[in-house]
Design brief:
This protein is α/β, with parallel strands linked by helices. The protein has helices spanning 11-23, 45-49, 107-119, 144-157, 171-175, 191-199, 214-226, 254-261, 270-274, 277-290, 319-332, and strands at 2-5, 27-32, 37-42, 59-63, 83-85, 88-90, 94-100, 124-126, 161-164, 180-183, 204-207, 232-236, 266-268, 294-298, 336-337. The model has no long low-confidence stretch (mean pLDDT 94). It binds phosphoenolpyruvate and manganese (II) ion.
């Protein structure tokens, strides 16, 4: 059950709802949006019925939501949302490209990859400083030193930074450098981490667990929303199936299904889905055609030397084609490619590649 507060509701009105719900043995979570405040109720819904919440001061509406994810559901919020990341929108009218190296390795590698990203039409830079590797012997990332490199490259190129956080204890640290916090596939049901990013004042990119159903993915998003953060973007990154020709199977139907069930933007990761460079452009076309709100792509100046996921990283010679796909396909879907935000970066050498 969700209580929607009227625009003119006071803090005392909101506190009043929280108090009566708690007195009745329930729990209430307050989420403040730009235009309205909502209070999500957890507990015995029938018992809340007797509280007459609708007639309390400051209450606009009380909505019973049938699905187990409420705040992120379209039942609760019929219009699709736009999430702003450092001044760059991700939402229903645009196609936002996020690109960069899988892992931050050196300042030079990250800067060159960011220039490749920008030339491909990216408005946001990706790059992992904390890497959640399946093997404990694989490269684990540079940690805070990697975050500093990302911040320097943002300064140089003007691209806001999307980077992964793998532990609730480092959410504050990662938030102090990042424009968007990524929760990876292996952590989709790390509930302590979801709650911690829900309390952070940064947008969150929530990747689908590789063995998670769409409903489980939306319930994971609900953990973040319940803590007051509704700036969530969902990312389909491939699921585990019997197929061995690809690293994962891109569940392309998850995009329209999730968009129908949830108001949150949904993007696709064609790099981690296929795990193969030759599949990235075909899967990018499929993602745009199915109506994704964005893509997140690995690029690397020297993939054969990459410390992580080199097989799927696009090369410099692929960038022109990615730029062409990103410029030409979205208009056919009624969208425009999100341009880089309007700032004057120090580095002007990374103009988008001419597309033809
Ligand atoms: C990544 O984006 O670098 C990553 C580790 O992705 P995933 O969590 O989808 O494997
Ligand atoms: Mn990777």
């Amino acid at each position: 059950m969700v209580v929607v507060m009227a625009p003119e509701a006071t803090q005392a009105d909101v506190d009043g709802i929280v108090d009566v719900v708690r007195d009745a043995g329930g729990e209430a979570f307050v989420t403040r949006g730009v235009s309205r405040t909502i209070v999500g109720l957890v507990g015995d819904v029938d018992q809340f019925g007797s509280l007459n919440l609708r007639s309390r001061p400051g209450v606009l509406d009380v909505v019973r939501i049938s699905v187990p994810y409420k705040l992120v559901s379209r039942e609760h919020h019929p219009n699709r949302s736009v999430v702003q990341v450092g001044g760059v929108p991700i939402g229903p009218d645009t196609m936002t490209v996020i690109a960069g190296p899988c892992a931050v390795e050196t300042p030079e590698q990250t800067l060159i990859a960011a220039r490749m990203a920008k030339a491909a039409g990216a408005a946001l830079l990706r790059g992992g400083a904390f890497k959640p590797r399946t093997s404990p012997y694989a490269y684990q990332g540079l940690g805070e030193a990697g975050l500093k490199i990302l911040a320097d490259v943002r300064e140089e190129t003007g691209l806001p930074v999307v980077t992964e956080v793998i532990d609730p204890r480092s959410v504050d640290l990662v938030s102090s450098y990042a424009d968007m916090l990524q929760v990876g596939t292996r952590n989709m049901q790390n509930f302590a981490l979801l709650q911690a990013v829900g309390e952070a004042r940064k947008p969150v990119l929530l990747k689908r667990g590789f063995s998670a159903t769409i409903e489980e993915w939306l319930m994971a998003a609900e953990y973040i929303a319940q803590r007051g953060n509704l700036d969530i973007v969902l990312c389909e990154r491939g699921i585990r199936t019997f197929e061995t020709a690809t690293r994962n199977t891109l569940d392309i139907s998850a995009v329209p299904v999730a968009q129908r069930l949830s108001h949150l933007p949904v993007i696709v990761d064609p790099s981690h889905s296929g795990g193969r460079r030759d599949l990235v452009l075909p899967l990018t076309r499929a993602a745009i055609a199915v109506g994704a709100d964005g893509i997140i792509v690995d690029v690397h100046p020297e993939p054969e030397m990459a410390l992580c996921d080199g097989d799927q990283a696009l090369l410099d010679s692929d960038i022109r084609e990615l730029a062409s796909v990103a410029a030409h396909l979205p208009p056919l879907m009624g969208r425009t490619l999100t341009p880089p935000r309007d700032v004057s970066p120090r580095d002007t050498s990374a103009a988008p590649a001419p597309v033809g």
